[in-house]
Amino acid sequence: MDKFIETINKYSLIQKGDKILVAVSGGPDSLALLLKLFSLKSKLGLTLHIAHLDHGLRKDSQADALFVKRWGQKLSLPVTIKQLVGQQIKQKGSLEEFFREERLKFFIQTAKTIKADKIALGHNLDDQAETVLMRLLRGTGLSGLSGISARRVIRGAVFIRPFLETTRCQIDRFLKNRGIKPRVDSTNQEDIFLRNKIRHHLIPLLKHKYNINILKVLANLAQSVSYDYEYLDQAAKRSLKGNPLRLDLKKIVKLHPAILRLKLRQGISCIQGDTRRISFQHIKELEDLIFARPSGSIVDLPKGISVKKSHKILIFFKKQRGRFSFFKRTVPLI
Fold it and tell me: Contact 273/263 with Cβ under 8 angstroms?
């Protein structure tokens, strides 16, 4: 898997002496990631620590945790395991989004506790292609089409994905050649989540009927769009100086639509740390607020975020327990 080293070098994902928290589910991608990083441990002077989150959805999920723990013992690496209990799982909204948030909090907190420099995830090229299709079907712009980043800072933690340019087949072959059997998550075979439907039905159809190289095509699209988005994002930041949560109405109405939409996303991101759950329709509603609605109008967005149009400015704020919270400090756009 030469792509593994190539990706690390291309995006400067790892430096000598790094302490890396490796997210290991026990599945093929994360297990192969652990083994590949372990092979670099001595050469680069790496310190590795394994993290495993037991989602508690399956009866055999504890066996996954035990499997990961044993690999930690085999490699003489420390392991941190957390299990989600029933009360934590009972929640409203998207189960997929809930688990993503729980994983994120667990990895970031564990990395902070052990003072890790990076958090390594096992996302591969197939995941990249699936993500692009999934976001396209749900409705997205350049941000969504840019897909998964090889390196990304989320809430102050650095996440790296060394397998992002490696295919799932290459990973499976790597494990098979070494006689290693990973754990198999049975929920990955169920069409409960949109990603599974895309993986099991849409991508095979696209491969068979339209383009056998569709995975590579979609991954290339994500990379190209990410460069375009990064350039426009920087241009949007330079377009208006000052607090991104209080935008001058006279100035923003003169912006190019592409830059205006990015400024709106940047304002939202300053509050919630990202723009997940913000759809094209939400942005259109904010544009309507700016150009058509009277002063004093408010648009409510997901996660308790609201945007108010005053006489001269557009204000982003978050409702917290019956009061408004205006953010004075900004959070880096991710």
Answer: no
Domain span at residue 251?
Answer: 240-325
CATH number at residue 178: 3.40.50.620
With left for phi above 0 and alpha for psi between -120 and 50, is residue 76 left, alpha or beta? left
Reported as a single tens digit per residue, the pLDDT across 130-177 is 999 998 998 788 888 999 999 999 889 999 999 999 999 999 999 999
CB-neighbour burial class of residue 12 (10 A; exposed 0-12, middle 13-18, buried 19+)? exposed
- How far apart CA 298 and CA 175 sit, in angstroms, is 54
Instruction: Let me know whether 141 and 23 are in one domain.
Output: yes
Helix, strand, coil percent values for the chain (each to nearest 5): 50, 15, 35
Tell how far CA 197 is from the center of its chain: 19
The span from the CA of 161 to the CA of 168, in Å, is 14
Torsion of CA 59, 61, 64, 69, to 10 degrees: -120
Q: pLDDT tens digits for 262-297?
A: 999 999 988 887 787 888 899 999 999 999 999 999
81: which strand partners?
Answer: 52
Residues 6+ apart with CB under 8 A from 45: 16, 17
